[in-house]
Design goal:
Structural class of chain A: alpha/beta
Number of helices of chain B: 13
CATH topology of the largest domain in chain A: Pyruvate-ferredoxin Oxidoreductase, domain 3
CATH architecture of the largest domain in chain A: 3-Layer(aba) Sandwich
Number of strands of chain A: 22
Number of domains of chain A: 3
CATH topology of one domain in chain B: Rossmann fold
Shape of chain A: globular
Shape of chain B: globular
Number of strands of chain B: 12
Number of helices of chain A: 20
Strand order of the largest sheet of chain A: 11-10-12-13-15-14-20
Structural class of chain B: alpha/beta
CATH class of the largest domain in chain A: Alpha Beta
Order of helices and strands of chain B: HHEHEHEHHEHEHEHHEEEEHEHHE
Radius of gyration of chain A: 26 Å
Oligomer: heterodimer
Strand content of chain A: 15-25%
Distance between the termini of chain B: 49 Å
CATH architecture of one domain in chain B: 3-Layer(aba) Sandwich
Chain lengths: 619, 344
């Protein structure tokens, strides 16, 4: 039977299955293939905190959503067009993510009585008509996988583990994708270690592809053309990898050795993993006994002259608080990466949130200002980490680089920068003992000199007790304390002279300004773009520099009648804006451990234009 | 690299003055810390290190003011974290000669975790733990080495938690060098500082230190001249354990239990006595446990000194190996990763 091909501008697929079903792998493979094919894309891994929750349960379901297209792809999609559900629990928990008339591909072999009971289903949804508003394809994925491997004498358990490649192969067929990238991956990953495993996975991948080609239930294939991205060399990159590369790049460009002190914590551990592999770059990673030791070791390394960093997530950030104060007092460069997750306390370890902003800006004892940046997308993590390093070194200060679970685990195509084009990071260690004073200051930056141990004649002591201006000796003098507090604050404020002015997407003035920060960039931009297409007077700014703010921020805010601040927290940036600029901003706060939905933001935007009243009051 | 640390030679002859900072020492008059500071300042000039390579790190507490008074590089850190800060200094630059000054509260209570982990990693860092069995800086609460029943500000009816034996804790953490000395025996303390410095790896030196304000005389049984001959046995590698004013007593092992024997009544001679062996970790535990029998003398000196490659050397070795295998890392290659495509 002839199969027709339909061209689409973009598609969102969600792979869902048990935590052990390899959905993250299937999703990542599909993403890499789409990236190399030239699509723009955005991914969203959505998985539980449990490593292997009991098979078949709803709380053990792991999902991976990818949106790819020939246009600018800003978010992984509020909803998906296609849901691949490997078992009843995956179908139950994910069908609400599927758009009206969307496509479901289910592994019908998994719809056993036992699995349906595990998923809390009394009747089979494949037969009770509850999925009538979707296009459902029932595919015997388990059986077909087993058939592909009958002559290989493999254990049932192993055979079952390869079925993610069947689903992946079928998706490749459906979206006209080449298999090469995944074939290469399988050969590289398993080929050298276990030829049989490689062979099995390859067979199953191809079986999935051929199934689509042969079986008559699939009548249409889809095609998504490459996106018109700016010319250059690209790679697909995840946020945590980009953060690691940003730190290494900063170390290389500054000529410093990179030291990472870290303690394993979800969702930040991948940065530690990534950096621990890069020993040929001279990177030293220290997996400390706890979060406190991790940052303290980094402070020690910074004193000794390394570019020092510590990486963590919310609970670990809280533990590092006191040491951050020490770094502020010692005035040493230090990069603190906080991959935000759902809180408070242990909260939602694998879910995203933006609720550490106030902790980052204000959460320390005493007057303890430091610089805070936030990454907006997975690839932007590179620039955020690099910029954090540059500022830390130039201003002799700790800098907090906020990312979040969503940008950290998400991926997108990245126009690879040329190493030589990266902004230089000059380092000038103090060498001359004549007139050396540990707390003298550079006139322009107010930074103190970096005098590292091993330099003759510069022996000096620093510590957490209040420092005397210039000498750095202990001082309890009231006037000196007042002076030093204001000096430390002034130094951080000076950073505003060194960062770009805030840019506006949309008109420079108008009725509504939507202000975001961090990982909500894509969602807000989508919503604002849609609203502007409808002719609404709305503009968007996304603040990367959260302390200090860009110099022109106040000016921008005052040029709009209304200010809307969507955040995945209960109103944090909005407090900083109101405090500093006294603007009557309105919040939009949805804190579900998920990225904001562009559609919801758009609805909120439209509420400012619908009637005479301004939007709701969630702030 | 660390192997060369002990061999570097200062270019000019240093004296005690080179290690005295211009800061007024602010400990209470009569505090044992003065003696410890003096002994360290006396020994440092003769050690084979450049002055600019010394880094003294501390936490919080009376003892932790130590770095301010030594004219070297130094960090006065936050409570309990000296070992962690020092670890970063040493890993970043293994050529530095890193010392930690800490106390029983700083090093064993709030900083206990960092202490045991630093010791097990065997970082080439020298720890001087000033043990005064009390919190001095906060004015007299009990510490993790205070004794059962001890009356303090926070234990008006006496301490009810069992104390740590610092030497045992360090041995339990697999420290490669463990020693004990005291503020009132300058010569011995100097020798122990020298020994700690010469050790390749973590060195843990407990120093009995009198807090004459909040816990005066806590160690007088062992530190006072008129009693200490009978209450202390000095450990010397390869030598039998002999003590007493006339060297008339010794320690012999009865199974695993040390016991005091008299060397003058003809029943036992020096050849029956326990001979100290710094390389024997089992023996080190037996000696550390002598503290639990009040009849036995306290052992002073080096309990254990064994070999082990320090952490920071292993780190350097891995980096060298990775560079030998893959070449010096190229930034552009790293940015590009494994798979790229070109948009024209």
């Amino acid at each position: 039977m002839a199969k027709s091909t339909v061209t689409l501008e973009e598609v969102t697929i969600r792979f869902a299955g048990d935590s052990g079903d390899g959905m993250q792998l299937a999703g990542t493979q599909f993403s890499n293939t789409a990236a190399v094919f030239g699509n723009d894309l955005s991914t969203f891994p959505d998985y539980p905190a449990e490593i292997r929750a009991p098979a078949g349960t709803t709380y053990g379901v792991s999902g991976f959503q990818i949106r790819f297209g020939s246009l600018d792809v800003l978010t992984p999609g509020d909803t998906c067009d296609v849901l691949v559900a490997m078992n009843p629990a995956a179908l139950v928990t994910n069908s609400k993510m599927l758009r009206e008339n969307g496509t479901i591909i289910v592994n019908e072999d998994a719809f056993t009585d036992k699995n349906m009971k595990m998923a809390g289903l009394a009747v089979n949804p494949l037969t009770d008509g509850s999925l009538a508003h979707f296009q459902v394809y029932r595919v015997p994925i388990s059986k077909m996988t087993a058939n592909a491997l009958t002559d290989m004498n493999l254990s049932t358990k192993f055979v079952d583990k390869t079925k993610n490649f069947f689903a992946l192969g079928l998706m490749y067929w459906m979206y006209n994708r080449p298999l090469d990238q995944s074939i290469r991956f399988i050969q590289e990953k398993f080929g050298s270690k276990d030829a049989e495993v490689a062979e099995a996975n390859l067979r199953v991948l191809k079986a999935g592809y051929n199934y689509g080609d042969t079986v008559e239930i699939f009548t249409t294939r889809y095609e998504v053309k490459p996106a018109k991205l700016p010319p250059g060399k690209y790679r697909n990159i995840m946020g945590n990898v980009a953060t690691a590369l940003g730190l290494v790049a900063a170390a290389k460009k500054s000529g410093l050795q990179l030291f990472l002190g870290s303690y394993p914590i979800t969702p930040a551990s991948d940065i530690l993993h990534e950096l621990s592999r890069l020993k040929e770059y001279g990177v030293k990673t220290f997996q400390a006994e706890d979060e406190i030791a991790a940052i303290c070791a980094a402070i020690g390394a910074s004193y000794a002259g390394d570019l020092a960093a510590t990486t963590t997530s919310g609970p670990g950030m809280a533990l590092k608080t006191e040491a951050m104060g020490l770094a502020i007092m010692l005035e040493l460069p230090l990069v603190i990466v906080d991959v935000q997750r759902g809180g408070p306390s242990t909260g939602l370890p694998t879910k995203t949130e933006q609720a550490d902003l106030l902790q980052a800006v204000q959460g320390r004892n005493g007057e303890a200002p430091l610089c805070v940046l936030a990454a907006t997308t997975p690839a932007d993590c590179f620039f955020a980490a690099y910029e954090a390093s540059r500022i830390a070194i130039k201003y002799m200060t700790p800098v907090i680089c906020l990312t979040d679970g969503y940008v950290a685990n998400g991926a997108e195509p990245w126009l690879i920068p040329r190493a030589e084009d990266l902004q230089p990071i000059p380092v000038a260690f103090q060498k001359n003992p004549t007139g050396f004073m540990p707390y003298s200051r550079d006139e322009k930056t107010l930074a103190r000199p970096w005098a590292i141990p091993g330099t003759p004649g510069l022996e000096h002591r620093i510590g957490g007790l209040e420092k005397q201006h210039l000498t750095g000796n202990i001082s309890y003098d009231p006037d000196n304390h007042d002076f030093m507090i204001k000096m430390r604050a002034a130094k951080i404020e000076r950073i505003a002279d060194d960062i770009p002015l805030q840019d506006i997407e949309g008109d420079q003035e108008g009725k509504l300004l939507v202000v975001g920060w961090g990982g909500t960039y894509g969602s807000i931009k989508s919503a604002v773009t849609e609203a502007r297409a409808k002719g609404l007077s709305v503009s968007h700014i996304h603040i990367k520099y959260l302390n200090p703010f860009p110099r022109n921020l106040g000016e921008i805010l005052y040029k709009f009648k209304h200010v809307l601040v969507p955040e995945i927290n209960n109103g944090q940036l909005i407090r900083l804006l109101r405090d500093k600029y006294l603007v009557p901003a309105v919040g939009f706060n949805v804190i579900k451990g998920l990225p904001l939905r562009a559609e919801d933001i758009q609805e909120k935007i439209e509420s400012f234009f619908g009637s005479n009243r301004a939007g709701g009051n969630n702030g | 690299m660390a192997e060369t640390v002990a061999k570097e030679q200062p270019t000019v002859k240093l004296t005690i003055k080179d290690f005295q900072s211009d800061q007024d020492v602010r400990w209470c008059p009569g505090c044992g810390d003065y003696s410890i500071l003096a002994q360290v300042q006396r020994v440092m000039p003769e050690l084979p290190h450049k002055k600019e390579n010394y880094v003294v790190v501390s936490g919080i507490g009376c003892s932790s003011r130590f770095p301010y008074y030594v004219e070297t590089y130094g960090i006065h850190g936050i409570h309990g974290r000296a070992a962690a800060i020092a670890s970063g200094v040493k890993i970043a630059n293994p050529e530095l000669n890193v010392w930690v000054a800490t106390g029983d509260g700083d090093g064993l209570s709030i900083g206990g975790n960092h202490m045991i982990h630093m010791l097990r990693r065997n970082l080439n860092i020298k720890v001087m733990l000033f043990n005064n069995e009390i919190y001095g800086l906060t004015k007299g609460q009990y510490s993790p080495t205070s004794r059962l029943g001890q009356i303090t500000k926070s234990t008006p009816m006496g301490v009810v938690d069992n104390p740590f034996v610092p030497v045992s804790l360090a041995l339990g953490a697999n420290a490669t060098f463990v020693a004990r000395s005291m503020d009132r025996d300058p010569k011995h303390l100097q020798e122990m500082v020298r020994r700690a410095d010469g050790h390749r790896g973590s060195a843990f030196l407990e120093i009995y230190q009198n807090c004459n304000v909040f816990n005066d005389g806590a160690f007088s049984t062992w530190t006072e001249k008129d009693t200490r001959d009978d209450t202390i046995v000095y450990l010397e590698h390869g030598k039998p354990l002999v003590f007493g004013k006339q060297k008339e007593k010794g320690i012999r092992l009865n199974g695993f239990t040390p016991q005091i024997v008299n060397l003058t009544d003809g029943k036992f001679s020096a050849s029956d006595l326990l001979v100290h062996n710094e390389k024997d970790s089992t023996l080190a535990f037996i000696l550390a446990n002598m503290i639990h029998n009040p009849e036995l003398p306290r052992a002073m000196g080096v309990y254990l000194a064994i070999d082990g490659t320090p952490y920071e050397e292993l780190v350097e070795q891995q980096i060298a190996k990775a560079k030998a295998r893959k070449g010096e890392g190229d930034l552009q290659k790293l940015l590009e990763g494994d798979e790229t495509w070109v948009v024209r």
